[in-house]
Design goal:
The longest helix has 32 residues. The protein has 12 helices and 9 strands. The structure holds zinc ion. The site of zinc ion (ZN) has 5 residues, from α2. Belongs to the peptidase M50B family.
Length: 371
């Protein structure tokens, strides 16, 4: 997921937010300041509600971040690499590069998030008690009650037993432990995610129809996201089952036509792009190391008269933004990475030895299906 705003690093893990978080924050602040707080603590000046609402929304965002960081830190404890943590529309995602090594790690990584939300709910609940004892202003108590409730809801919602929700991962870990087959467990968990997504959509529609208010739409949107995420995970699970331990080396295109960052766009177009039936090409530096990727669309944007004087490296995607994988890694593991990128570069001893596209993965899966 693209991070619109990078917040920095926590324990070495890049943390950022997607723009959709700002929309949610605005909706939360508005709802708190105009409805929740004035109802529970009436008779205050407007600015008190708005200031408290902003503070509560920021605290909510921080508890969301704590939830995701808990996943990420437990993952790292088990040696699973964490790419980044991103907060977005429906909460957050901790993007893990590797799979859990065993069922227990899978269980603890998945459980850490909801557990953190439960702890946050309890802490804010404790805050409510403290506020009551100390005789704090009612508007503050109302904000703390809201924070305790929303964290509790977050924990419960995330524990619904369908992947990619945390509860689905917990289910997967338990089935994996009992039956000893990770892929089968994963398939069951993603199917459950599909069903839960569908149920949420139906519940949302029922709410809209019965109340005549659009609030149920929200539930429907969440259900739709869950369903499409479950579908994507199911495709990955199927790849895993088919490709097994087949390494990237056996799936990749080992003879990709490539460009050089110092070459002119004109030269590249004549010698490489016009000869190959591809839309994206890897770049190789003089030593044979990966040096980025260029799409036909990038080249097409350069006016014809400027092509002889424009270096390919100027229009290409920078090497640090193109996914690179080792040739020895299992191909099934990189299927999600390939699905998110036009091209994945394959390296061995720092040298570019091939590329993998979605078509290569699909082709390998179809070959594997043959009896
Ligand atoms: Zn979670």
């Amino acid at each position: 997921m693209t991070q619109t705003l990078r917040l920095g690093r926590v324990a070495g893990i890049p943390v950022g937010v997607h723009w959709s978080v700002l929309v949610i924050m605005a909706l939360l602040v508005q709802g708190l300041a105009t409805a929740v707080l004035p109802t529970s603590a009436p008779g205050r000046p407007n600015w008190v509600y708005w200031a408290t609402a902003v503070g509560a929304a920021v605290l909510f965002l921080l508890s969301l971040l704590a939830h995701e960081l808990a996943h990420a830190l437990v993952a790292r404890y088990y040696g699973i690499r964490v790419q980044r943590v991103t907060l977005w529309l429906l909460g957050g995602v901790a993007e893990l590069t590797d799979e859990a090594p065993h069922a227990r790690a899978d269980l603890f990584v998945a459980g850490a998030g909801p557990l953190t939300s439960v702890v946050a709910a309890a802490a804010f609940g404790g805050g409510v008690v403290a506020a009551a004892v100390l005789g704090a202003p009612a508007v503050l108590t109302a904000a703390l009650v809201w924070l305790a409730l929303i964290n509790a809801i977050l924990a419960v919602f995330n524990l619904l037993p369908g992947a990619p929700l945390d509860g689905g991962r917990v289910l997967r870990a338990i089935l994996w432990r009992i039956r000893g087959d990770r892929e089968q467990a994963n398939l069951v968990a993603t199917r459950a995610g599909h069903v839960i997504g569908l149920l949420l959509i139906l519940a949302g529609m029922a709410e809209v129809l019965s109340t005549g208010q659009l609030r149920g739409l929200w539930l429907g949107i969440v259900g739709w996201f869950l369903m499409s995420a479950a579908t994507a995970e199911q495709a990955n699970a199927r790849y895993r089952a088919l490709l097994g331990k087949l390494p990237v080396r056996d799936v990749m295109n080992p003879y990709p036509l490539s460009g050089n960052p110092d070459q002119s766009v004109d030269d590249f177009t004549r010698t490489v792009a016009s000869r190959a039936h591809h839309r994206a090409f890897p770049l190789r530096d003089w030593y044979g190391r990966p040096a980025g990727m260029v799409r036909l669309a990038d080249v097409a944007r350069v006016p014809i008269e400027a092509r002889p004087s424009t270096r390919l490296g100027e229009v290409a995607t920078r090497p640090d933004l193109v996914p690179v994988v080792a040739a020895a890694r299992p191909a099934a593991e990189i299927a999600p990475v390939v699905a998110r990128s036009d091209l994945v570069l394959v390296v061995e001893d720092d040298l570019l030895v091939g590329v993998v596209s979605q078509a290569d993965i699909a082709r390998a899966a179809e070959l594997a299906r043959q009896p």
